[in-house]
Specification:
The protein is α/β, with parallel strands linked by helices and 337 residues long. Helix content is 37%, strand content 15%.
């Protein structure tokens, strides 16, 4: 059933798209803000909410929105939303299932090449000292290296295609193997244990949920092939931070390229963490470990930037707008089952 004059709240991260959203939904009651807290007084009327991964939609906020029918997240993942409470309240969640499969895959290789060819150290040496000496800057070829891909969804498959272009030996792990693509592209599925123990490089592209929390952890980090490089452009919680620190300290992990970190929100506000009435020791430890990683000479950390291209952002906005319009027209798209 088509619904007119709906109350839509759009929480934005980028000024650039504000006018586009205003124009697109000019025939509806639109509220725009930079956070849910900013528009807290208007939440009781909201029927459709659009957020990004940096906006936490908690039970507390959901309780303030008794009329909410749809959350249109501008992301593939939805772990920033209390999906259990939303389902209990009959609120649908629409995602952007495909926008950056090539975008994130390319970034994963940007991180890997930065590590393999010591690009950052080379640049830093030239820019800071003016030295063109090559001592200590020898890298390694990707050709013939064994890369293990965790998760063979759209992004993982794109990473595999790029890896094949470099002449790499590809193996993968997925709870739901795509044997058709494996045959077509030319890679093999192995057990998770074998992937950890035999891969020269591990690139993570799995979704984050209760089952994948700390997929790489203190127990299994000791089973990796010594000298492995770990690339994570998926979610920070897939890798236990202290496990990665231990792996680096022990020399088991030679380096890491991380676009995501556990508790990355706290990195920008450690003062709040330390001044809380009841500091969470676990979060504090993760934060301090993250600082260790930031300062580590063989770790490259970027600010959750893998998705961030003009093309990907346009696809995200277009899909989100379409998700909202389809819901208004009584034909929901890309909603969770």
């Amino acid at each position: 059933m088509i619904q007119n004059n709906m109350n839509i709240a759009y929480i934005y991260s980028e000024e650039k798209w504000r006018d586009h959203i205003k124009e697109t939904f000019s025939d509806h009651n639109l509220t725009i803000g930079t956070s849910l807290e900013e528009i807290k007084d208007q939440l009781s009327e909201v029927e459709i909410l659009s957020v990004f991964v940096s906006h936490q939609v908690t039970k507390e906020y959901l309780d303030l929105m008794p009329n909410l029918k749809l959350i249109a997240t501008r992301s593939t993942g939805y772990d920033h939303i209390d999906a259990v409470t939303a389902k209990e309240k009959g609120i649908q969640i629409a995602t952007v299932p495909s926008y950056g499969e090539n975008t994130v895959a390319e970034f994963a290789f940007a991180l890997l090449l930065t590590l393999s060819r010591r690009v950052y150290e080379s640049y830093k040496q030239v820019s800071e000292t003016g030295s063109f000496e090559k001592d200590g800057l020898r890298g390694f070829d990707l050709f013939d290296k064994k890369i293990g891909i965790i998760g063979t969804g759209k992004i993982g498959l794109n990473v595999i295609k790029i890896a094949k272009g470099f002449g790499m030996d590809v193996q993968a792990y997925d709870l739901f193997p795509n044997e058709e693509e494996a045959s077509k592209i030319g890679f093999s599925y192995v057990s998770f244990e074998e992937l950890l123990s035999s891969s020269d490089i591990i690139s993570i592209h799995a979704p984050y949920n209760e089952d994948t929390h700390h997929l790489i952890n203190k127990s299994n980090i000791t089973t990796v092939k010594p000298g492995v490089y770990i690339i994570n452009t998926a979610r920070g919680g897939l890798v236990e931070t202290t496990a990665l620190v231990n792996g680096l300290d022990a020399g088991l992990v030679a380096g890491a390229g991380l676009d995501v970190l556990e508790e990355e929100g706290y990195l920008g506000d450690e003062l709040q963490l330390l001044e809380d009435d009841h500091p969470n020791a676990k979060e504090l430890k993760i934060t301090l470990s993250n600082h260790y990683l930031i300062d580590h000479p063989r770790v490259i950390i970027t600010p959750h930037n893998a998705f961030n291209t003009e093309g990907a952002m346009r696809r995200i906005i277009d899909t989100t707008v379409n998700n909202i319009k389809s819901f208004i027209n009584g034909q929901p798209l890309n909603t969770l089952k």
